[in-house]
Design brief:
It is built from 9 helices and no strands. By secondary structure, the chain is mostly helical.
């Protein structure tokens, strides 16, 4: 290790090196009002939550607003953060609930509209290659999953939350998440059986 590297490491350690902290330490620091820790948490999970809400069918501009509101809620309720629980799961639960509220409110305004589904990748995409066809069929199969099963699959598989974190987001037990994931994977395997 060079002297320059050692000096940089010491400076980062002295400054708190917020960017390399795990989620539990970030939660503890955010609870104490550390703005740098909050910024690190924001940078780490903003894109993930945005993508999750868009996959739920929220329009991109609305999804961005809901993400901002979710992070604002985290900051405003920072004194209530339990460092022993997943702050990431709490963030996703806030975002998920805000998306459901948005769907409820927009449905009230326009009764004839149904909940939006996952976006179609576009015309002709299924003719490009077998991989593109597989991707289209996978998206369709995911869209056909029952709502809760799809939410569990997207949180655990696409957003890489643990079963416990997904259970916190959806307000269900980890065993229910495990069962829903098993059923989702079985259903997706059946839908894609001809690609084996």
């Amino acid at each position: 290790m060079t002297d320059v590297t050692l000096v940089l490491l010491l400076l980062l350690a002295r400054q708190g090196a917020v960017g390399v902290l795990d989620d539990a330490e970030l939660a503890r620091r955010i609870r104490e009002g550390d703005r740098q820790a909050f910024r690190c948490f924001f940078d780490r999970y903003h894109a993930f939550l945005l993508h999750y809400l868009e996959r739920m069918g929220v329009a991109p501009d609305v999804a961005e607003d809901l993400v901002q509101q979710a992070f604002l809620t985290i900051w405003e309720r920072r004194a209530q953060i339990d460092p022993g629980r997943s702050l990431r799961a709490f963030l996703f639960r806030i975002g998920h609930n805000r998306a459901l509220n948005h769907f409820r409110d927009t449905r009230r305004l326009s009764r004839e509209e149904e909940l939006p589904e996952l976006k179609d990748p576009g015309p002709g995409a299924d003719h490009c290659t077998e991989a593109a066809l597989l991707q289209v069929r996978l998206r369709e199969a995911i869209a056909r999953l029952p709502e809760r099963r799809r939410a569990v699959f997207e949180l655990c598989f696409l957003q890489e939350l643990t079963y416990r974190e997904a259970a916190e987001v959806l307000g269900i037990s980890p065993k229910t998440v495990e069962n829903q994931m098993a059923q989702a994977l079985r259903q997706l395997r059946e839908a894609l059986a001809d690609f084996r």
